[in-house]
């Protein structure tokens, strides 16, 4: 986002959590995705046998997150999303690769957008969460002063995709 704000990037894909850091006049925005999130867990996790996961079943699970905040703040965020049962602990990592690697070895569970694919990780499963968990939406942002035709075409294709 810093590079986009500085004008070093003409277009980015981002979640809505970063939109407040930039003036709306600086970009054109197109929503790309707003569906519910899924749970990733190891096939060795006891919850793996269920066809879907009720939020109440997450009691005493370790949450692996990329959210850059304190464990207390993360717990409050999930509590505000109606995850009423306490988690055992929260592990914060700095990349998706680290998150999925820890899930792969059954160190905890994670929440991911449902468009995420985990096929390369043979031990990781994706499960639907009931009731739906919708913490973020995803957008494509295009610099308002973009003059690159390829960027403009890509942005237009994103708009057309969303309208379908």
Write the layout of secondary structure elements.
Blueprint: H1 2-5, E1 11-15, E2 27-33, E3 37-42, E4 52-54, E5 62-65, H2 71-80, E6 89-92, H3 96-104, E7 110-113, E8 124-130, E9 138-143, H4 149-163
Parallel strand pairs: 4-8, 5-6
Antiparallel strand pairs: 1-9, 2-9, 3-7, 3-8
Tell me about this structure.
There is one protein chain. β5 (62-65), α2 and β6 (89-92) form a beta-alpha-beta unit. The strands form three sheets. The chain has a four-stranded mixed β-sheet with strand order 4-8-3-7, with helices on one face. A three-stranded antiparallel β-sheet has the order 1-9-2, with helices on one face. It has a two-stranded parallel ribbon with strand order 5-6. It is built from four helices and nine strands, in the order αβββββαβαβββα. With 164 residues, the protein is of the alpha/beta class. The chain is 23% helix and 28% strand.
